[in-house]
Structure formats: structure tokens, C-alpha cells
Amino acid sequence: MTTIHDRKFVSSDPEKCVGCCVCEYACSFEKEKSFNPVKSRIRAVRLPPVINMALTCRLCEDAPCVAACPRDALTQSTETGVIIVDGDKCNGCGWCIEACDYGAIMLHPEKKVVFVCDLCEGKPKCVEWCPEEALKLVTADVLAQKARITAVKKLFQESVQPKK
Amino acid sequence: MRLLFDNSTPGTDPFSPENPLILTTGPLSGTMAPTGGNGHAFVAKSPLTFGVGEAKSHGFFGTELKRAGYDAIIFSNASDKPVYVWVDDDSIQLMDARHLWGKSPRETEEAIRDELGDYYVRVAAIGLAGEKKARPACIINDVSRAAGRTGMGAVMGSKNLKAVAVRGTNDVNVAKPDEFMTFVKEMHERMKGPATAKYKTLGTPLNVLVHNSLGALPTRNFTNAVFEGAEKVSGEYLNEKFVAKIDGCSSCAMRCEHLAAVNEGPYKGTTCRVEYEPLWAFGPHCGVDRLDAIIKAMDLCNYYGLDNLSTGNAVGFAMDLYEHKILSKEDTGGVDLRFGNAEAMVDLVHKIGKREDLGDILAEGVRLAAQKIGKGADKFANHIKGLEMTGYDIRGLKTAAIGYAVSFRGADHNRHGAYAADLKGTVDRFKVEKGRSKIVTDIEDLYAVIDSLIVCKFSRGVYYKEYEDLAKYYELVTGLEMKAEELKRTGERINVLGRLMNIREGFTRKDDHMPPKVMSTPIPDNTVSKGSFVSQKELDFMLDDYYAQRGWTNLGVPTPEKLKELGMEELTPIVERKI
Hints:
Chain A is α+β, with helices and mostly antiparallel strands and about 160 residues long. Helix content of chain A is about 30%, strand content about 20%. Chain A folds into two domains: about 5-55 and about 115-165, Alpha-Beta Plaits (2-Layer Sandwich); about 60-115, 2-Layer Sandwich (Alpha-Beta Plaits), CATH 3.30.70.20.
């Protein structure tokens, strides 16, 4: 069994994301063989004028969606952390949707059951297609490492900049 | 265009209910095809040119419309009260828009999204200028994207149609999915390369210094061709000081949308997407070297729903009239409307948007405004067929000059791109010579195809094999066999159709003209292009050469034989009486 420290999820860098939604198309094509953002497991969010970011499942520890399901239709893989939906048990009631802070679990427009990112067996298509390389398959720890490096770089830059 | 042709009668007033407004998506819309997936176009008879009007836009609106299941929507007639159209997949409703009247396109977009309670609704809307039928009004979607040229927003306003809101949740499928994805991947790779580098780095404002160094930057309403303040409005300076973020459209693997923010001065807090043409229209063209004011003027155009190019032209035109004492301080409401007065420029955009004072006259476009003002104002009204000029000084770009003169849309660089040969130096750009028209017709036909596929012109460089690549796109998406040769012929047919529609409206050879100052004012600056202008003799030569190249008569009318060759025999009655 792996812990949350080893779990890799798809993270979007808002500095790089341009809001083009290529990830949505790549996802819906991979999973549903059609171009339809409504069936994508990852969704890009644009807040004009300058904010862009794509969101998908973050494989939370003790995932609230799983806890919220009154029909035990959701389980979390102990190995990868991916949320597994039992299509026979799910009746599309939407408790899990309300429980998710990221809007990452959604109701399928035709199947009437919920669906969520399954990481494409460890090789997410969205990451492969993102033209800006804004998407990465990472662990939380790697994100923290990157944040620390960025922060230190900034401090260093400020300290060497000439005083105005 | 064909839909307009089939659904309208010649001689109709552009603001009459009989002028249909046509909204279309392209064959690639809704697919993952980079740039092709997200386009849409508005087509109607233009209130500026009184001929074919059409403007394309990208963003997210077109793709949503396709997913709702529509290839085209024709808005005919007019509403007697303000409405917006709500397209919710299969359901289409006319909604009350009285509470939206007077709002900007962006405010309208936000208000509609709020009241419909769905944040993925996409909206294309007009602003105050469109409501008041200001002829250069445009239609704006997704905050900053405009179907800008030829006054489509004014036609929409004449129908009391404030906005079109769309939500589409259906699948879009292609005929050959796996091959299509391989091809898209190839396009993504190409888009990482040099063909799109300009758009991803400095963006189109890169042109400022290039044009300036070539003596091809129209300055002060085509008085000069070099701008002393070019450095201060250059793409380089803009990106260093103002650009906050670069965004992309839906399904695009490039990103071109340079979002600028003004952080200090009187226009602090203004944010707007910037491109070369609007920057030129309010910058060099008005003699203004302050980017903060230029960005403000662009933002105001988005606010009122005005075409930046035509509006900037109108301001520069008014400044030229003021300098020549055709407009007095009384006419300008006490404003010192000399070239370079940035505050006066911003003020005049407000007035055009609201149709107040002098702005009310300028909102008619420079051709009609010149008629109203009189006193020889027409000598300063730089338009072709009623559509205002763009940022290429064709006094010293004589291949481009042909393309401008004959374009069915009016003064336009986007339907021919013939400036490329001049700027790259593959031809002597100061010379008029036989055979030059071949360059123009070749690129016109290619651009017609690109426009009809509604693929973004910024991506043109990635279709290495031109028609062959575009035909492949078409075939993979639609499943209909398409050969490069046939697609080229289609390009020619489209250009002939545009021509025929204008002929049907009474256009003749004299409508293939130059803006007055291009012929009257040789470039005075001490630069490579010094002394260059287009003479009547040169224009005649260009037109003769172009018509001959197209196989048209020397009056610019396609012959019945030509129509037969192109399989357009049914349109012969239009030309019969003209030959």
C-alpha cells in the first residue's frame, strides 16, 4: 500500500496554462472517442483577464467524495489513489460532486453516473498533449519542492537587484 | 457568403430588416483542430461598404455553437424590442434584453451567464455602438475577441439583437478520428516551430518597428510613413512594460493573445488584449506615442463594441481635418484635436461610441462622415469601398496595393496578405509590373480557403503544403474526398462570388480604388520609400493586370466563360448586362 506521499496526480501550472482546453479535447477523445469538454475528466477554468488553470482529481487522502457517497459506489485505490466508480451502484445523486472542493468529479451527460480522472493508467493524455507543458503528473512533495525553489529564487533575485 | 447571396436581394439597405445577418461555424469547428476548432463568422451586407460584409472571430463561442449542433444560423427580419437569442442545444429562445441595453459586450456576457445560471454559456454581443447603429460597430465574444470589420455589429443592432448566447453539450465527431489525431499532433509540433514564433513571442506589434524601418508605417493619417515615436509604441516596449499574460483560444496549440495592463498614469487599471492593427490605428495613425492611451482607446472600443481599425481611422481622419482647418475648435467642442493629442483621442472614442457631437458624424465611417462634413474632407478619408484602411503603407507596397484595391471587403489586408512579397523583398515593392497580380490572386485564393475553413490566419505558416494540408484536414474531418487542386478552385470560386455579390450591388471598376492620400501624398520622409505613391496610371495598370490574370473583363467583371469554367453558370445573369 502506498501513501499520499507517493500518489501522483495531474497538476496545472497557472503561470503556464493559457486556457486553450486542449487537455479537455485530449481527454474526451481518449475516454469517449469524441470531442466534447462535457465528457472530459479535466476542465480548464478561465477568469478574465489573466487567470487560467486546469483542474482535475487530486487524489485526496480520505477522499471526501468517497466518504460522501451514500451508496458505497466510490472506492479509492490503495495503490494509486485513483477514485473508482462502481457504475452499478452509482445513481447520480451528486453528493460526491458537492463534497469535492475542486469540481473534479462530474456527472456524465449520458451515462447518468459520475466520472473522474483515472490517470490513463499512469500516462495521462492531457499531460502528453498540453502544448504549453503546463500539466505535470507529480506528487504533492514535488510540488512543494518546486514551490520552495521558486520562492528562494525570488528572494535571491530581490536581494541582488539594485536599490531604486 | 453564399447563404447571404441566396437569402438577400440587391439594393437592400444594410439596416433594413431584409438584410439577413448570418452566423456560421466552419467545417472544423468543435474539433481539436488547432485554431480551426474555434472559429465563427458573421456575414451580412455591410453598412460601411454597401457590399459584402463579413468578419470572423475565434475564442470559444464558435466551438460551443457547433456542439449545440449548428452549422449556421440566419437572423432575418428584426425584433421590435431588444432581445437576445439563447441557443441551448436543441432549444432556441428569444429572451428579453431590455435590461442589457446600453451594457458593454463584456458586461452583457457576464449578466447573461448569471441569469442563465450556467458559467459555460458563451456569448457574442454588441455594445452601445452597435445599438446606435454606429457603422464601424463589431460583435465581441469571449471578452476580447471581435468579429471586427465591415460593421456587423451595426447590422445586429439594427435588428434589436443584443447578443447570441450558446451552450452546446453534444459530441463533435470526425470522419477519421485516429488519422485526424495524428495530423493534429503533427500540427501541434509544427506550431512549436518558427512558423508561429512571432505570435507566441512579441506578437503582431512586432510589425511596428519593421514597418517603420521600411518606411511603411502609415503615420498621421497617411501623411508620413515613418513615425518618430515608433520605439515608444513598439512591440518590444509593449511587451517589456505592459504585457501581463499571453493566452490562447480553445483547442489552439499556439497562444497569441497578449493581454496588456496599464499600471500607472491617468489610465491606470486598464487591461486589454493588444494586436498590431489596433495599436497602429490609435498610435502612429493618430500620431500618438503613448501606449497607455492607446491601450485605453482599444479597451474603449471593446467597451462600446467598435472595430478598432475603423474607429482609429476615424479619429486620425478627424485629426487630419483639424490640422487642415476643415474642422474648427467649435466642431470639436473646444478640443485641440491635433495629431498626437492622446487625451483628445481617448475622448473622441468615447464620443464615437456614444454617438455624441463630432463622434456622431464619425460613427458613420470616414466615407459618409466626409460627405456630411464637406469642404473637401473626402480628400482625407482613407478608405476603399467605404471600409477604412489598415496598417500597411501601400504607397510603397505596390503588390499589396493591388490586393487592397480589388478586395471585395474594402480596404483590407486579411483577404489577400499580398504585403508579404513586398515586405520580404521577393519583389521590387516600389515598382508596378506585369505579372505581379499572379502573386495576389494566388494568395487571395489560398486565404479564401483559410477563411472559409475559419482557420486562424496566424496559423497559416504551419500548412507547409498549403492546399494539400488543408484538403487533408477537410477530408479527415468530413470524410468527403478533397484534392488540393479542387480546393484551390474553391478559393477562386469564393473570390468570384464576392465579386459577383458586389457587382449585383452596382459596384464597378471605379470601386477598385486607392485611399485618396495614397495617391495624393508622396511619402515625404527621408527613408527608403521616400517619394513613393500610387499614381492613377499605376492603378490602371494594376487593375488591368489583375483583371486579365483573373480572366475578367477590363471592367472587372467575370466573363460567362469564366463562370462556366468554375461551375458557376447559374450566376451568369448577374454579369450578362454588365459586359
